[in-house]
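We examine the record.

___
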Amino acid sequence: MDALKPRIVVLDGHTLNPGDLNWDTVGEMGELTVHDRTTPEQVAERAAEAEIVFTNKALLPAKTINALPHLRFIGVLATGYNVVDIAAARARDIPVTNIPGYGTESVAQMTFALILELTQQPALHDVSVQAGDWTACPDFCYWKKPLVELGGLTLGLVGYGAIGQAVARLGRAFGMKILVHTRTVRDEPDTEFVDCQTVFIESDVVSLHCPLTDENQGFVNAKLLGQMKPTAFLVNTARGPLMDEEALAKALNEEQIAGAATDVLSVEPPPADNPLLEAKNLIITPHIGWATRAARERLMNIAANNLRAFLNGKPQNVVN
């Protein structure tokens, strides 16, 4: 194997680059093979000769890592890196890198797109107009559901990293009061730091921006949802397993809260029996908050920089 031209394999490159970007910045550093998708059964075979492996959602468990004799570097094409057994990689001195910070503005934008759809309902009314409702209306205007003004309402954020802070800035621009629950409390103007229960009790919109851990899995449960205002909305652009999906479906169907919107689910793609797929007053989008072209281009560039830094002996964004 030519040490100057390492063999690079991308296991599942389609979601990052469905065709509107290119892999040149990665490919210039080695012999590059890009697979759109790779099943668990295909991983070991496709990566067998690779020194460099990039993965997004294709799993690299310990058994697979230990079966790849040439492997020297694993690059995760995302911020979360739970798809890789980082302990197994560390045991073989294989650095695992991730992509931090690439999607902050895009996910914040998506969060407010969902908030605005919940409160102003432009898509609902577009469908109504296209169906002929406005043409048949005796008045110059109508609305299908109550329209909610954001100014003066309370936006509660669970998690206050870069994305949470970006969402807070947008909330302030709309004239909203900001409540935050986070592990690291800071002195920040126009922001009140409170416990998680207070966020859910007092907020008109609760938005999740925390990482998924063993401790917070399913923390948005029936009890917490039951403490929300009946006029309040829940938004999740973080991780699906933060929510107890059955409890949320029940709260929506029984109109305990006014509505919810989520860009993430516990299993993606969702099975047909996911209770949220038929819940009332719920907007679901297919995990696209990160997927603007600008964000994906940043992700690609950071991935290339991670590999370049490793090849230069100065690895960066190493998570293990």
Remarks:
- Residues 293-311 form the longest helix (19 residues).
- The chain has two domains: 7-102+293-311, 104-284.
- Residues 104-284 form a domain with the Rossmann fold fold (CATH 3.40.50.720).
